[in-house]
């Protein structure tokens, strides 16, 4: 691997636009568009890193990508091995982090034990504070899109807001769907699946899944709450 530095590469007239965008992101700051609130996160460096894996200097770029979050550098041999593994979809363990190649993205996430929350009554839902978990922010609101609405009754409480499991099922008008099937159909990366929260009622039924909506028995034209999942 050549001894490169980001400033030299940026200044070179041979540097591609993809590489310039990647280096600008990892070396300067994160994109900040206040009006950009997608339901699925989109990080320019994730796409650029995947595009750069075929580059002869891929280990150097991967080191920049990883060090931005991990605050440490890996050996050249380790980086070269990772570049080979990331040629196809996979999840790699990096001690305190997980690295994933998912189609046209390379994702990095710190290992975290995501918490579970108990919502005892309607007032608890109303007063629930915005919750930042990995790539997502979760909150409850009194307005939102149709698929974000859920109609809760007293019998549903206490509610449990918890990380989803692949074996979770939600009963829809068109049949029952598992979270694993939903994630596969929507091409959701494995690292994002760990941050996907569902709402479970007192009977242990999943009544709401972000991206799907509520189950068939909790749908109405006048929802009592809206559960929002926004990209951070």
Key descriptive features of the protein:
single chain, 232 residues, alpha+beta, 26% strand
Write the layout of secondary structure elements.
Elements: H1 6-11, H2 17-27, H3 44-52, H4 58-70, H5 76-85, E1 90-94, E2 97-102, E3 105-110, E4 117-119, H6 122-126, E5 131-133, E6 136-141, E7 149-150, E8 159-163, E9 169-172, E10 175-178, H7 179-186, H8 190-193, E11 197-200, E12 206-209, E13 213-214, E14 225-231
What does it look like?
Helix 2 packs across helix 3 and helix 4 crosses helix 5. It is built from eight helices and 14 strands. The two termini are 34 Å apart. A hairpin with a 5-residue loop joins strand 11 and strand 12. It is 28% helix and 26% strand. The strands form four sheets. A five-stranded antiparallel sheet has the order 4-8-11-12-13. The protein is elongated and about 60 Å long. It has 232 residues and is of the alpha+beta class.
Distance between the termini: 34 Å
What sort of overall outline do the alpha carbons produce when their principal axes are compared?
A: elongated
Secondary-structure-based class equals alpha+beta
Mean pLDDT: 86
Portion of residues in beta strands equals 25-35%
The secondary-structure element order is: HHHHHEEEEHEEEEEEHHEEEE
Number of helices: 8
Strand order of the largest sheet: 4-8-11-12-13
Low-confidence stretches: 27-41
């Amino acid at each position: 691997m050549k001894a490169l530095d980001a400033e030299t590469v940026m200044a070179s007239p041979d540097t591609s636009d993809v590489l310039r965008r990647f280096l600008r992101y990892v070396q300067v700051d994160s994109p900040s568009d206040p009006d950009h609130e997608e339901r699925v996160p989109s990080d320019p460096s994730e796409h650029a890193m995947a595009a750069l894996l075929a580059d002869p200097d891929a280990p150097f770029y991967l080191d920049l990508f990883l060090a931005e979050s991990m605050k440490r550098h890996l050996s050249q041999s380790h980086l070269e091995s990772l570049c080979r593994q990331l040629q196809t979809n996979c999840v790699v363990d990096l001690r305190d982090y997980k690295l994933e190649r998912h189609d046209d993205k390379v994702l990095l996430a710190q290992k975290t034990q995501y918490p579970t929350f108990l919502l005892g009554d309607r007032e608890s839902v109303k007063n629930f504070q915005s919750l930042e978990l990995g790539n997502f922010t979760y909150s409850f609101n009194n307005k939102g899109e149709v698929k974000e609405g859920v109609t809760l009754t007293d019998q549903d409480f206490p509610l449990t807001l918890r990380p989803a499991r692949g074996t979770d099922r939600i009963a829809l008008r068109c049949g029952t769907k598992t979270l694993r099937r939903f994630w596969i159909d929507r091409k959701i990366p494995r690292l994002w699946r760990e941050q996907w929260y569902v709402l479970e009622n007192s009977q242990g039924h999943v009544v709401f899944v972000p991206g799907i909506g509520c189950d068939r028995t909790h749908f109405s034209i006048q929802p009592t709450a809206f559960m929002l999942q926004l990209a951070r």
